[in-house]
Specification:
It contains two helices and nine strands. By secondary structure, the protein is α+β, with helices and mostly antiparallel strands. The protein has a six-stranded antiparallel β-barrel.
């Protein structure tokens, strides 16, 4: 309801002290059950040169810690959790992420293909796939614009492919299909 909005100006600072108390009062805390099988949603991801693909996740049920074996319900790929943590403000490792928390997860060995990090995908513990209902709304993006890109010098192919893979990781609207031309 607009009349309940907190009037805020970042420029003047008006209303800034009232924001946090209003959030606590008006927005319900996340709920979940730590005793249910693990269920977490992939919210975002980014590439780290040392860890590979790092996932930003929201844990709905259960708990997740390093060493857990999880499976993507969208791709069926299985992974071993390498580390979990929270962004506070940078990655701060934690022993466990619990139901209701938002944090990061990376796998060990790392997620190899950036295409496997699909936004909206649900993950669960290996063996619990039939006991967990995937989060609603996940679907593969549908391509709308098609572009072919080739390097002017064939020796730059690997650099071009790496650059495009980085783009795909950070922009979920981009999908790839490799092509080859003798020209």
């Amino acid at each position: 309801d607009p009349k309940d909005a907190v009037l805020v100006s970042a420029k003047t600072g008006k209303g800034v002290p009232e924001i946090l108390p209003a959030v606590i009062e008006k927005i319900p805390h996340p709920i979940g059950d730590e005793n249910l099988p693990l269920k977490f949603l992939l919210v975002d991801s980014w590439y780290d040169n040392f860890r590979g693909v790092v996932l930003l996740v929201r844990v709905f049920d259960g708990t997740i810690r390093a060493g857990d074996n999880v499976v993507s319900m969208g791709t069926g790929m299985k992974y071993t959790v390498g580390q979990v943590g929270i962004q506070y403000p940078d990655g701060t490792p934690q022993k466990v992420l619990r139901a209701g928390q938002v944090g990061y997860v990376y796998f060990n060995p790392g997620m190899k293909r950036i295409q496997d990090a699909k936004l909206g995908d649900t993950f669960t513990t290996v063996g619990c796939e039939n006991a967990v209902e995937p989060c609603p709304g996940f679907e593969e993006p549908k391509p709308m614009v098609f572009v072919a890109a080739f390097p002017t010098d064939q020796s730059d192919y690997t650099r071009l492919a790496d650059s495009i893979n980085q783009l795909v990781l950070n922009d979920r609207s981009v999908t790839l299909q490799k092509d080859f031309s003798e020209a």
